[in-house]
Amino acid sequence: MAVLVSLLAFLMTLVGGLAAMKVRDNRHLVLGLAGGLMLGVVAFDLIPESLEMTRHSPFGVPLPMIGFAAGFLLLHVVEQAVAIHRAHEHEYAPHVHAHAHGQGGGGSAGLLAASALVAHSLMDGISIGLGFQSGTEVGIFVALAVIAHDFADGFNTVTAASLNRGDRRPAVALLFADALAPIAGAALGTLVKVPDAVLGPYLGLFAGVLLYLSAAEILPEAHSVHPRVMTLAATGLGLTAVLFIVGLAG
Question: Can you give the pTM of this predicted structure?
Answer without folding.
Answer: 0.64
